[in-house]
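testing teh design pipeline on a random one, pls ignore if ur not involved
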């Protein structure tokens, strides 16, 4: 949105409307020993309506969590279940639900379906497309060519840390993409 965000604090990225689905959901995406409801609240724990007079409003938090669990079809026994007890797909749904519920202007999704089963993968793809349709810019970083081809409007190929090719996704440039992935830049 025309703002230089270089060297900004994470909170400033959140306030600017950026969402992030990290590659490593355990290390960067979730607090594994926290329950589902708290994980769904991570970026908003200090904002109304979740906090009033400096105290967390547990009723509002629970209502919020139940809404996202239903909306994102998160399979859990309870919103108080520790996230570490959920399957990988349901852990990813917690992250996706939390990030997309904020309606980000920019969503960075890094390997969003790594290690997920087919059903969870299709679900995450559907949600990314919905977010794009709603007007968000999505930067998808993936090593899965079929995922890139299924979801991207434009494709940039990075080789040895540099973008060596950029092309529109016409679905017809698989050989060109393969050459770029092997480090053979266009002449």
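output:
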């Amino acid at each position: 949105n025309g703002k230089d965000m270089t060297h900004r604090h994470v909170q400033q990225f959140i306030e600017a409307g950026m969402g992030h689905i990290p590659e490593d959901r355990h290390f960067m995406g979730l607090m594994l020993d926290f329950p589902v409801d708290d994980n769904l609240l991570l970026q908003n724990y200090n904002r109304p309506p979740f906090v009033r007079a400096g105290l967390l409003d547990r009723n509002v938090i629970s209502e919020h969590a139940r809404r996202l669990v239903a909306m994102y079809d998160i399979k859990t026994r309870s919103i108080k279940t520790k996230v570490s007890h959920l399957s990988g797909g349901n852990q990813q749904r917690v992250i996706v639900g939390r990030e997309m519920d904020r309606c980000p202007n920019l969503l960075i999704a890094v390997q969003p379906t790594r290690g997920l089963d087919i059903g969870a993968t299709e679900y995450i793809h559907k949600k990314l497309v919905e977010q794009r349709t709603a007007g968000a810019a999505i930067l998808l970083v993936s090593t899965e060519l079929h995922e890139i081809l299924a979801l991207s409007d434009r494709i940039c190929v990075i080789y040895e840390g540099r973008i060596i090719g950029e092309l529109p996704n016409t679905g017809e440039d698989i050989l060109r993409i393969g050459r770029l992935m092997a480090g053979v830049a266009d002449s």
